[in-house]
Structures are given as structure tokens and as C-alpha cells.
Amino acid sequence: MPMLADSPDTQLLNQLRMGNNQGFDMLYRQCYPSIERFVVQNSGNQDEAKDLFQETLLILLTNLEAPDFLLTSSLKTYVFSISKNLWLKQLKKSARWTSLEDADETCSVVAPTELETPPSAYERVLAILAQLTIRCQALLAAIFFGRKKIANIVEDDGYASVHSAQNQKYKCLQQARKASKK
């Protein structure tokens, strides 16, 4: 549902488009506390929350410049969802994430989430490798840890051709993907 032209969110969006500092101050007061709370409750700290909010503002301003931009929710919900998606993406990227329960997508109330201490990326890789066949363990370790080229692996490990070694690598990666989903 599009917003009305005279709604407070529309007025705030217009202030933001014009670069009015009062608009940024109001947006900060309305949204930052709940974003900070969400980040801190989900393996972050205040500095990370500040950085995340700045990144969110950049995305919001970029989106506001698009001629076809249409806000179909409250501005608070929109800003919070940008921040939430950025934070979850950052957690996945930094391997600090195992699973997060869906947070309330309003700026005023955020449902607390409890996280288990996630295993390190190295521990997860070792656990996945342990589930693979010996041949796959050796092949993937040589490629990814030993940084050996396929041609060298063909010579050293007795594969018939580069093509067969590449096929085996593909099959081993498929095994690893299945093991990681268990």
C-alpha cells in the first residue's frame, strides 16, 4: 500500500532527499536504538551497529534517488529491514552466524534472539571433510589446502587425465555440499 502524500514518513523522506539534517536526526532517533539492540543481541557491538546504520543510510539514500522508488511500508520498517539484511549477510560472511530467529521488523520492538556459539569456519570445514571418502579428502585437501594444480594432481595421484581429475573434484564437492547440509 503506497503512502499518503502528507504522511510523516513522506515528509521525512522529502527532508532526506533534500539533505536536511533535521530529517537525518529524526531518522536516527527513531530507528538507531532498535538497530543497535538487534546488532548487540546478535553477536555484534555498538561500533558495528553504528557502521551498519551508516551503511543502511547510504542504501536508503541511493534508493530514494531512484525515480520509481515507492515505499510500501513504514519508513521505520524499511530501514530496519535493510539493516537486518545487511547484518545477517555480514554474520554469514564472517562465519559468526549459525541461525537467527526472525526478528520483529519494526524499529520500536525487537524480539531477543539467543545464539549458540558458532564453530569456527575451520572447524566446520574439518567436520565436513571427515564425512567424505578418503580419496575425496585427499583430493580436496591437495586442491584447496595444498594449492596444487589439477595437472600436478593428475601426475602425482595417478588420474588418467585432467578431465577425470576434474570430474572427481566435482563429485567430491557434491559430497561436501551434501555433508554440509546435514
From TrEMBL:
GO molecular function, one term: DNA binding
InterPro entries: RNA_pol_sigma-70-like, RNA_pol_sigma70_r2, RNA_pol_sigma_r2
One GO BP annotation of this record: DNA-templated transcription initiation
Top-level division of the source organism's lineage: Bacteria
UniProt KW keywords: DNA-binding, Sigma factor, Transcription, Transcription regulation
Residue ranges annotated for the RNA polymerase sigma-70 region domain, each copy included: 27-96
Protein name stated in the entry: RNA polymerase sigma-70 region 2 domain-containing protein
